[in-house]
Amino acid sequence: MDKEQLVKEGYDKISENFRSFRHQFDNSQELKKFSEYFPKNGNVLDVGCGVGIPVASFFVENGFEVTGVDISEGMLKKARINIPEAQFFQYNMIDLDFPENCFDGLVSIYAMFHVPKQKHGTIIKNFHRMLKKEGYLMLVFNPRENEGVDDFLGTKMYWSCHEPIVSLELVKEAGFEVVFHEILDRGNELMYWIIAKK
Questions:
Q1: What is the pLDDT of residues 5-64, one digit of tens each?
Q2: Max CA separation in the chain (angstroms)
Q3: How far apart are the two ends of the chain, measured CA to CA in Å?
Q4: Which 8-state DSSP code applies to residue 93?
Q5: C-alpha distances in angstroms, 131 versus 14, 43, 122, 159?
Q6: Could you tell me the residue range of the domain that residue 75 belongs to?
Q7: Which of 38, 160, 30 is nearest to 93 (CA)?
Q8: In CATH, what number is assigned to the domain containing residue 131?
Q9: What is the pLDDT of residues 106-150, one digit of tens each?
Q10: Count of domains for the chain
Q11: Helical H runs in 68-161?
């Protein structure tokens, strides 16, 4: 089975119980900080939206127009029920083809590390293309380099990530100005967060 299919099938399998697992990680502080960078009533793309909670729900509740994409149809079915005010589409983030200068904000939280790290630079450049001038990006990466398949909530899951310094450089090379980056502990798990401006 290829990596893409492994991720897709894995998240389809755990979609029923994923929301309770996701609640361990309170990212409300980061979401609030990010939302203050761009206009109220702006539009946000949530890449790797999962079941729509807490990220898409946060932006909808705060008056933003939200589009969510995910590779897993199982996750999207839950997201459409959880957040009917948002639009959700099935996409592999490698293949996103929204128009240029389309979104005020773009977030990808706990998703990039399911794509081969060799493709991260191309994906981030595409994020830059889709964002409006002075739009903002928020990404979350694993805080250490890794690649492989491991057990995750009772299924097999693929993981791939650069060291933080490499991920940061990829964001800069894509044309972004970094405004925040830090390894944060949320739910007893360390993750590397980046916020950047186009």
A1: 776 776 767 656 654 445 545 788 899 999 999 888 899 999 999 999 989 999 999 999
A2: 43
A3: 37
A4: G
A5: 31, 10, 15, 26
A6: 3-197
A7: 160
A8: 3.40.50.150
A9: 999 989 998 999 999 999 999 999 999 999 999 999 999 988 887
A10: 1
A11: 73-82, 120-130
